[in-house]
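Reposting from the mailing list since nobody answered there.

I have sequence plus structure tokens for a pair of proteins and want to know whether others read the tokens the same way I do. The first protein:
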Amino acid sequence: MGKLKLGPIEDEKPVRLTIEMPAAIHRDLVAYARAHAAETGLSQPLAPERLVSPMLERFMAGDRGFVRKRSDGE
């Protein structure tokens, strides 16, 4: 397996959201958490819900259209 896109996750005060997702995505998040723990040297995988925010942050940062609109003040 190649290097994961998600690096170390900072611990900061969260904002609570309640979402529903398909079970298949949850299973993938659990598997990703295991791979992330192995790659970053964590003794235990993070809870899947801890991955969602950094993943969304990385996705939005890589979306050129969103970055452009955000910098234009839209």
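The second protein, same order (residues first, tokens after):
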Amino acid sequence: MGYVLLTAGVLLWAYSHLMKRLTPGLRARMGENGGKMAVSVMSIIAIYLMVKGYGRAAPIDLWNPPAFMTHINNTLMLIAVFLLGLGYSRGVLRSKMRHPMLGAVKVWALAHLLVNGDLASVILFGGLLAWAVVDMIMINRQTPPWVRPAAGPVINDVLYGVISLLVFGVIAYVHLWLGVSPFGG
């Protein structure tokens, strides 16, 4: 049952975030606020299904990742945390990337695939990686060319980098609190 819930959650997440592009008529009939509410509700349900499904999935190991992948994972996670909010920063770097949040999801998913060799992880992280790639492609094809935002001062990038390190530390702490060491061992 865990794999069914997990797969349903990944598919619902993907659909809710691709709804505007896959079924634009349905989304338009809901109106701006109704459409956002539908996406929010579907996203919450999807997260619930993914968490429940991942937790209930019987362990099926596909490969045993080498220990050094932990270091690569942590480096990629620092990058993912930095990219996650880059679109909201006011420095130079925000003008360099069109889809920093989707980029963050792709890096996050890849990082977790490198250190988790079980089927549930492949479904969860591989599914979300596939969604982020498809979403990015669809946005690039269906929306006007990107207009780069004006670059701000470099000091804002430095401050944002410090904030990203602090957020990474909180995420590492939460993993440790949950009994999953992000540092190996």
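Reply #1 (J.P.):
I read it the same way you do. The CA atoms of residues 37 and 54 lie 25 Å apart.
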